[in-house]
Design brief:
The complex is a heterodimer of chains A (about 500) and B (about 160). Helices cover about 50% and strands about 25% of the residues of chain A. Chain A has about 500 residues and is an alpha+beta fold. Chain A has four domains: about 140 residues, Roll (PH-domain like); about 80 residues, no CATH class; about 170 residues, no CATH class; about 50 residues. In chain A, a hairpin with a 4-residue loop joins strand 16 and strand 17. The longest helix of chain A is centred in the middle third of the chain and has 27 residues. Chain B has two domains: about 70 residues; about 80 residues, PH-domain like (Roll). Chain B is about 45% helix and about 25% strand. Chain B has a four-stranded antiparallel β-sheet with strand order 1-2-3-4. The longest helix of chain B is centred in the middle third of the chain and has 27 residues. Chain B is elongated and about 70 Å long. Chain B starts with 7 loop residues before the first strand and ends with a helix. The mean pLDDT of chain B is about 85. Classes of the chains: A alpha+beta (about 500), B alpha+beta (about 160). At the A-B interface, strand 18 and helix 17 of A face strand 4 of B.
């Protein structure tokens, strides 16, 4: 059926050596960059000669390693298993049952694109996660491999016919993100989060510099600066305001860069029993999601995004609680019509009149107030230690207290649990709105928990464990909690559908 | 699920295991405290402070052993035709239901202390976050094996 034979062990494309080499050089650079200034700072005689000699030897050694890595990296398909052998000295043999393969994804960074090859990532689901990546094969071979790995050998004949019918409507582009949409997405990102991101990066960079420059203590400098200018900083609202504006501008720029790098030209193609999402500016990612493997989706929006009529949809697959966050598939700039289409496609979900909605007990509100109060006590303790003037202290509290109360009330209002046919919709959020949709037969196990305080108030919390993290239904009336628990357990026990 | 009569208690000798474990924990705590005291590692660990901490330890010890019974009695399991349910906790009462159809595998472990009382721990794994699945301590080994076989057969038949 294809020109590629996967039954025999085969190597990657020879171009893979370039990729291996690139990765090795990158790793070397990453772990040794702090030594680079040494070559420029100290006056060693003939330092240039040493420098070039060491660099040359290292480059040569790495080249040999890259070639060896390439020569000993072989894979094949053996019956029901995908086999991967690697390593010369430390041999490693991986064999993955094909039916356990969850998705086969393509990735191309700038180098891949330049030399026209593809990286293939094979994700599996299960208790012990294995992940395999083939760094460099040609696009055609990658496609052929994907076809082999994702064709389910266990399909029954009747389903085969079904699939042929579906072939007709194969490969339909259902979504494309335009540049203008992308600008909207960037503009409406959570810039506060970007702000903390920047602070984290600045600090970690500062600490790295500290290693290089011996008697320079980054943290001390920062603290000294803050202490010396304490009166100026805390006294003048001007300075604070200015810092805030500058921070915000930098954050917005960072958000723009981040969104553009990651989501540039995002598009969604519907094919057979799944969707394919591709995106990225320099590094193109291509993720294939099989619909029945989707565990649930989380839709996030905030007031600005709502004004612009867009939202972000995070798709949670089995196992993605364990895999890194950057591997999560996120559709950005989703409009209402497309969201409805997605919900229908993923969960056959359509809102209707006869759905049943539960709200958390008022105890939930009470508990959040108590927790906020404790938090404010700590904050005020901090003010006290820092000897805030009475004026500042009152000012800070006048700002913080109503804002906290406002957030708590918002959260209480936005929390609900809605049963619509066989789907559960969970509402959450403070300023943003977070909506989780799950077909609840995909629950793995369910925990009903009740603290002694909750017991007195007749309230209980439910936790649904899924193959992709926990969904929490906090502080329900205990009668409601029992109804929901029974409903979900009986659905899980009696459904004929597979959770994966 | 509210009907408590359907739930089984753990084997009585697991109470002894709990007491021994708590005793060990308490002895280690006391040893650390006395060690610190005699080696004078902590400035000011004498006089009033010493007696305060000692009193605290005594109270903690009494609580540990008095409460052991309540904790033991709260641990209950129920094997239903299509799920396994486990309850535990005093301050926070928890009830976890694991439908058989979601179970990936079942494991039986015997620690040295448990083996002495011919007890075993039954762990049930689903595809949810690991470590948050079901774990029942203090079953008689044959009982644990029986439950394991029951579940394994159910999964096979599916």
């Amino acid at each position: 059926m294809s020109e590629f034979n996967f039954d025999e062990l085969s190597r990657q494309s020879p171009k893979g050596i370039v990729i291996n080499y690139g990765v090795l050089l990158y790793k070397l650079g990453k772990s040794f960059w702090i030594f680079i200034p040494i070559f420029f700072s100290k006056s060693i005689d003939n330092k240039l000669t040493y420098f070039i000699a060491i660099l040359g030897i290292l480059a040569l050694v790495l080249l040999i390693i890259a070639v060896v890595q390439f020569l000993y990296f072989k894979f094949k398909i053996d019956g029901e298993y995908f086999i991967l052998n690697q390593g010369m000295i430390f041999k490693k043999k991986t064999s993955i049952p094909i039916e356990r393969i969850q998705s086969v994804n393509f990735k191309q960074n700038l180098i891949h694109q330049l030399i026209n090859i593809t990286q293939v990532e094979i994700q599996t689901a299960g208790a012990k996660d294995v992940e395999v990546s083939i760094k460099a094969i040609s696009r055609q071979k990658a496609e052929a491999l994907k076809k082999r790995l994702q064709s389910d050998s266990r399909v029954i004949v009747s389903e085969d016919i079904d699939e042929e019918v579906q072939e007709v409507i194969q490969d339909e582009l259902i979504y494309k993100l335009s540049i203008i949409e992308l600008l909207k997405v960037s503009f409406s990102e959570n810039h506060v989060r970007s702000f903390f991101w920047i602070i984290a990066i600045v600090f970690s960079f500062g600490y790295q510099l500290e290693d290089v420059i011996g008697d320079w203590n980054f943290a001390d400098q920062v603290i000294k600066f803050v202490v010396q200018n304490k009166s100026a900083i805390s006294g003048s609202l001007m300075v604070l305001g200015l810092a805030f504006v500058i921070g915000l501008i930098i954050s917005i720029i960072v958000s723009f860069v981040r969104v553009f790098l990651r989501h540039f030209e995002q598009n969604v193609i519907k094919r057979n029993d799944g969707i394919q999402v591709s995106e990225g500016l320099f590094t193109r990612r291509e993720d294939v999601l099989k619909i029945k493997k989707i565990q649930y989706s989380v839709t996030v929006t905030n007031p600005i995004k709502r004004k612009l009529g867009i939202q972000t949809v995070r798709i949670r697959q089995a196992g993605s609680a364990k895999t890194k966050k950057k591997k999560l598939v996120q559709l950005v700039g989703v409009k209402n019509e497309f969201l409805a289409q997605l919900n229908n496609l993923f969960f056959h979900y359509k809102p209707s009149e006869n759905s049943e909605t539960f709200k958390p007990s008022r105890y939930y509100l009470f508990r959040m107030f108590v927790r906020t109060f404790l938090f404010l006590l700590v904050v005020n303790g901090f003010f006290f230690i820092n000897q805030f003037s009475t004026m500042n202290w009152i000012l800070a509290n006048v700002l913080i207290i109503p804002f906290s109360v406002f957030l708590v009330i918002l959260k209480f209002k936005k929390t609900y649990f809605n049963f619509e046919n066989k789907t559960l919709v969970v509402g959450d959020g403070k300023i943003g709105t977070i909506t989780t949709i799950i077909e609840y037969f995909k629950t793995q196990n369910i925990t009903y928990s009740q603290s002694f305080i909750q017991k007195r108030r007749g309230v209980a919390t439910l936790k649904l464990q899924t193959a992709s993290g926990v969904i929490k239904l906090p502080c329900l009336h205990q009668e409601d909690a029992r109804i929901i628990q029974k409903r979900i357990v009986s659905e899980v026990e009696n459904t004929t559908r597979d959770w994966i | 699920m509210e009907d408590q009569s359907q739930f089984n208690s753990l084997d009585g000798s697991y109470y002894k295991v709990m007491i021994i474990k708590r005793l060990l924990f308490f002895l280690i705590l006391v040893a650390v405290f006395l060690g610190l005291y005699f080696m004078n590692r902590i400035e000011g660990l004498k006089g009033l402070l010493f007696y305060l901490i000692a009193a605290g330890l005594v109270v903690l010890g009494i609580l540990l052993f008095v409460m052991a019974g309540v904790f033991f009695r709260r641990k209950k399991y129920r094997l239903f035709d299509k799920n396994l349910t486990y309850q535990e906790g005093v301050l926070i009462h928890k009830e976890t239901v694991v439908p058989f159809s979601r179970i990936q595998h079942v494991e039986i472990d015997e620690g040295p202390l448990e083996r002495f009382f011919s007890l075993a721990t039954l762990s049930v794994y689903t595809a949810g976050d690991s470590g948050k699945d079901l774990k029942i301590n203090g079953l008689r080994l044959d009982k644990a094996q029986e439950i394991k076989d029951f579940i394994t057969n159910y999964i096979k038949d599916e």
